[in-house]
Write a structure and sequence with these properties.
alpha+beta; Alpha-Beta Plaits; 3 domains; five-stranded antiparallel β-sheet
Length: 396
């Protein structure tokens, strides 16, 4: 497979024009940290956009940043940290799950996968922070959508459509993101030796409270020692991250403790722990297929009780479960997906062998109606089927 090293939008337009004329296909690749996510992409050539780097503009007073899509997330976060700001969706670094280096993820790759960390429970998903973008479509046309302000209601909300599309709708070249302030202090409260049903119930109470936690996770004893920041936890631990200035932070801590006076809530430094949870740290290096099961938080304890996974972690107050299952086990995969559906959720196969991903759809199987809509959207942006063919669904 040939590889084209792209240096500019003009070169992308040239490559797409040639692919259209030749009837060939392109796999869009940045740093490649999530190349094993989704279906195998059997394209004719690789379009390497990793050289499209750099922060185009940063307006701290407006809480807005624009960057080329090959820019490393770590570079953006460093620039924001110097001005006391951050990306609210807490971008996840899944590279190590696929045997790639840490801190190699690009902003384009993170947005294409909608890769959110633990703070999603407070600030929303990556697609909620993508204000605008510039891209190349299947007609080899450069276009832009969205804007540079939070309230932008001109036309369709295309940024939300492109975010999470896994590069199947076009080549993102530039993105504009809204930012959130970085509070001066944070603390994590931990309730040790708490069963999953009680732990998730406590997290849901915290989630619906007025105290604005930016992380709500449950770690069972089977994986607790793999995380940084705390030791033995008995049956399991519920973690709640709070942020703010000293006085309001103290009030939030007191408020959360009052939610369950019977629970002993210790204060620990859990910042690194929450980053590890969002990155799927418990499953790095393990010989297991990796699932992300998205559920109503009230159904998470039921899922764990019925599935009884050996390796798992709960995030987003139970709205997300990281699950490890035996590699290439189709029966286990069907059970996970069936139970997730019964719990009004869905399961995404994040990491598995190429053979497994060819047999078990990595993404939630769509209904005929949704499939028809997906094909219509694909046809509107990429009518010749040039970009990342079948990366999400066969034939799309």
């Amino acid at each position: 497979m040939s590889r084209m090293q792209i240096q500019s939008d003009a070169e992308i337009i040239e490559a797409v024009s040639a692919a259209r004329a030749n009837g060939s296909t392109l796999e869009i690749v940045g740093s490649g940290t999530k190349r094993g996510y989704g279906r195998h992409c059997a394209a004719d050539a690789v379009l390497d956009i990793s050289a499209l780097t750099g922060i185009v503009s940063y307006e701290p007073d407006e809480l807005v940043i624009t960057a080329k899509t090959g820019t490393l997330i770590s570079e953006i976060e460093d620039a924001l940290a110097r001005r006391g700001q951050r990306l609210g969706f807490d971008p996840a670094d899944w590279g190590p799950l696929f045997g790639k280096p840490r801190c190699a993820a690009t902003v384009g790759g993170v947005l294409s996968a909608d890769a959110c960390g633990s703070a999603r429970v407070r600030f929303g998903a990556a697609r909620d922070h993508l204000l605008g973008y510039r891209a190349i479509n299947g007609f080899a046309e450069s276009y832009k959508a969205g804007g540079r302000v939070v309230k932008n209601v001109t036309g369709f909300d295309l940024p939300k459509l492109l975010c999470g599309a896994m590069g199947t709708l076009g080549v993102l070249t530039e993105v504009t993101l809204r930012l959130v302030p970085r509070p001066p202090h944070n603390v994590t409260l931990i309730a040790r030796d708490i069963a999953p049903d009680d732990g998730f119930a406590l997290l849901r109470r915290a989630w619906t409270s007025a105290f604005g936690p930016t992380g709500l996770a449950y770690v069972p004893s089977s994986v607790a020692l793999s995380f940084t920041g705390f030791g033995a936890v008995g049956e399991g631990a519920a973690l709640m991250r709070l942020e703010g200035a000293p006085v309001p932070l103290a009030e939030k801590i007191a408020g959360l403790r009052a939610l369950d006076p019977g629970a002993l809530l210790e204060e620990i430094d859990g910042e690194r722990t929450f980053r590890e949870i969002g990155n799927g740290h418990a499953l790095v290096g393990m010989d297991a297929d990796v699932w992300r099961v998205v559920l109503p938080p009230s159904a998470s304890a039921r899922f764990v009780a019925e599935q009884q996974p050996d390796i798992w972690v709960g995030d987003w107050a139970g709205g997300l479960l990281w699950i490890g299952s035996a590699p290439d086990d189709e029966a286990a995969a069907q059970k996970i997906r069936s139970l997730a559906s019964a719990c009004d959720g869905h399961a995404i196969l994040l990491r598995a062998s190429e053979t497994m991903r060819s047999r078990i759809p990595p993404f939630r199987p769509e209904s005929p109606t949704c499939t028809a809509v997906s094909k219509s959207v694909k046809a509107a942006f990429d009518p010749f089927g040039i970009f990342n063919p079948s990366r999400m669904y066969e034939g799309i």
